[in-house]
């Protein structure tokens, strides 16, 4: 089952009146992956998640869940989904335990010990007998996660887990999701309008804007993109590339379409590169250091997509 596809979203589009909420959207999720979907407000994340979970039944394109494509198979296989898209309805006067017990019976989960296990898993064992109305937002969200896991789903679909939480709640929920990802076999699809929220959680990232997928990268690729590097502009990039390889023994560089050279090798000083170029009669017209931070990168990606909307 390793790397088997749990979810396939093929060419899915959804329109609300004139509003194109999702456009020719493709996404594959493999078993064990934690896929983070990031995009600004109105990008289409909730629409995507609602389609996957069956809350929005009318759309164009295909959806395959645990191998099933047809309506009956999708309905059946949605049993293996745990979803948190809207706040679940908990009874304020009942304790966390009583609330979960209510849903355990309602959803036909036989294992009576499940509630205690879940409360421990989400870090609410000590407050299990406390009334829901006295819970902080972070505690409420952790209880919502416990509920989503009550039937031991295989895929957790979680829309904006930290939305509306205060900083302490954000940390609590982020830590819990990291723990779940580490300690369980869950496959997780999670969204956020803040890419850095997903940074230490997801194994793969999908960037969405205006209903379209505008970029996709793995955790490793993200780390590479965030590496700092030196940017050079010279009059002869072929010769410069040759010098980097022969004189400075590095292949950790790229020549961009704009004729810039980006050198990623952390063992080489910018001054050595510049000296080598100048000594070999290259004309150096630009030298700078580039270091991306995650939010800048995200804003660049989503703003570029906005300005280049027609061609993406
Ligand atoms: N039920 C609806 N009726 C009309 N328009 C809708 C509906 N649901 C979503 N939209 C529109 O579709 C687009 C995508 O919305 P969606 O809620 O999927 O985005 P999102 O990425 O989840 O945003 P947010 O981070 O604000 O929740 C938006 O322009 C939104 O206004």
TrEMBL record:
Residues 7-235 form the ABC transporter domain. SMART domains: AAA. The keyword Nucleotide-binding applies. One of its GO terms (molecular function) is ATP binding. The keyword Transport applies. It comes from the Bacteria. InterPro entries: AAA+_ATPase (IPR003593), ABC_transporter-like_ATP-bd (IPR003439), ABC_transporter-like_CS (IPR017871), P-loop_NTPase (IPR027417). Keywords: ATP-binding, Nucleotide-binding, Transport. PANTHER family: ABC TRANSPORTER, ATP-BINDING PROTEIN (PTHR43335). Belongs to the ABC transporter superfamily. This is ABC transporter ATP-binding protein.
């Amino acid at each position: 089952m390793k790397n088997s596809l749990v979810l396939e979203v093929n060419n899915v589009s959804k329109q609300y009146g004139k509003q194109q909420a999702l456009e020719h959207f493709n996404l594959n999720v493999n078993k064990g992956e934690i896929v983070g979907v990031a995009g600004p407000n109105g990008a289409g994340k909730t629409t995507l998640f609602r389609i996957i979970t069956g809350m929005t039944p009318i759309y164009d394109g295909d959806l395959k869940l645990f191998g099933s494509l047809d309506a009956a198979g999708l309905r059946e296989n949605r049993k293996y989904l745990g979803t948190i898209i809207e706040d679940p309805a908990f009874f304020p006067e009942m304790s966390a335990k009583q609330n979960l017990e209510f849903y355990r019976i309602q959803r036909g989960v036989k294992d009576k010990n499940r509630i205690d296990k879940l409360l421990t898993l989400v870090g609410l064992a000590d407050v299990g007998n406390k009334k829901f109305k006295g819970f902080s937002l972070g505690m409420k969200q952790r209880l919502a996660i416990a509920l989503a896991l009550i039937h031991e789903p295989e895929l957790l679909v979680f829309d904006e887990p930290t939305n509306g939480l205060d900083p302490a709640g954000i940390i609590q929920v982020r830590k819990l999701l990291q723990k779940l990802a580490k300690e369980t076999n869950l496959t997780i699809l999670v969204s956020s309008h803040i890419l850095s929220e997903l940074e230490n959680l997801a194994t793969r990232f999908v960037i969405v804007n205006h209903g379209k997928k505008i970029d996709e990268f793995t955790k490793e690729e993200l780390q590479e993109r965030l590496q700092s590097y030196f940017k050079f502009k010279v009059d002869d990039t072929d010769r410069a590339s040759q010098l980097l390889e022969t004189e400075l023994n590095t292949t950790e560089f790229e020549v961009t379409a704009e004729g810039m050279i980006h050198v990623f090798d952390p063992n080489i000083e910018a001054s050595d590169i510049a000296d080598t170029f100048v000594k070999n009669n290259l004309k150096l017209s630009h030298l700078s250091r580039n270091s991306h931070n995650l939010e800048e990168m995200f804003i660049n990606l989503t703003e570029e997509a906005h300005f280049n909307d027609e061609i993406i």
